[in-house]
Amino acid sequence: MEQFQNIQSVIEYFSAIYSSWQEVNCLLRNKIQNPDSGDLSSQKFLYKFYNKNKESNVFQTNLLNLILASSAEKAGVVTTPLLVLLRENISLFENNKTILEDLNALKIIEQSLLYYQDKRVSLGEDLKLIKTYPYPSEVERQMLIDETRKELNELSGEEEKERNRIAPFCENFFPGIYQLGKELVAFINAYIPEKDVIAESQVKSFRQNISNGILVKNDQTDKVAEPDAIFRTRMFEKFLILERRLLTDKYLKEENQNKELRWISTHENGKPDIKRLVTFLAGMLDNNYFLPNKDPKIKAFFESRYHITIGQNFERKRRVPLLNEYKIVFHNYPF
Prior knowledge:
Blueprint: H1 2-33, H2 40-53, H3 57-69, H4 72-95, H5 97-100, H6 106-112, H7 114-132, H8 138-166, H9 174-191, H10 200-203, E1 208-211, E2 214-217, H11 227-230, H12 235-248, E3 252-255, E4 260-263, H13 274-286, H14 295-306, H15 316-319, H16 326-329
C-alpha cells in the first residue's frame, strides 16, 4: 500500500510539472511574438514556477523514485512528453535569445501602478481647483487643501507598499527557466537510456493522460488544440485575465494540486449551465479572440480545459442569439 502511495505521488508530480511547462512555453511563445506582452498574473505564475522548481534535486529524486518503482522503459513513457516540452523551451529560447535576454520586466510594475498615477493626477487637479475656487472663507479652503494633501500622502504610501509587494514578480525569469530546462534534460538523458525514450514523432500520436496514479492512453488529446492554434496573437493572455474573473465569480473552480479547472456554474436543477459558458465564448468570438474557422477546435479546447461537454450548444445557430446576451451577463468583464 505504501509503495502504491509513493508511485501515486510521483505520477502526480510529473503530471503537475508537465502542465506547468505547457503554460511556461505558451507564455514564452507569446513573449517572443510580442516582447511587451505580459501582465502581473503571468509574472506571478513564472515567479512561483521558477522558485518552486529551481532546485533540480527535487526533480532528480522523483525521477529516481519513478525508475525504482517501475523501470527505465516505463519511466520513459512518463518523461518523454515532458522531454518534448523541455526541448521546445530550450530551442525557443536559443533561437530568440536576443529578444528574451533584453526583456524589461520593470514595465509591468509601472503598468500595475497606473491606478495610483491616475489617482494622483485627479487629486492634483482637485488641489488646483480648491486653490482658485471662491470659497466663503479661507478657513474652509485651507481645510480642503489639508485634506487633499493628506490623501496624496496616503496614496504615496499605498503606492510604495504595492510597488514593494509586486517587485519580486517583475523579473525576467525566462533565462533562469532556460537553464533549469537544460538541467532537467540532462537528468533524463543520464538516467533513462535513449533506447527507452519514445521517439518524439510518436509522442503526438501517443500522449499519456497522467491521473490518479494510472497511465491512460487518451485518444482525445490529439484533438485538443494548443492555445496558439486557435487564439489570435496576444489574445490568449487577455483570455487568461477573463478566466481569473470566472474563478472569482464562481463560474470556474480550481481542483486538486494540479489546479485543474472545472466549470461549476449550474442551473437551479443542479445541471451544468452550459448556456452560460457558450455565452462567455460568444463574447470572445464577438471580440475577435479566435482565429477564423476554428469552431471544432475551440469547442474541444474548452471541453478539455473545463472538463465539461459542450456538444451541440456551440453550433453557430445556437450561439448567435447569445451575442447580445453576453453584454448583459458579463457586462463588467474587460473583453
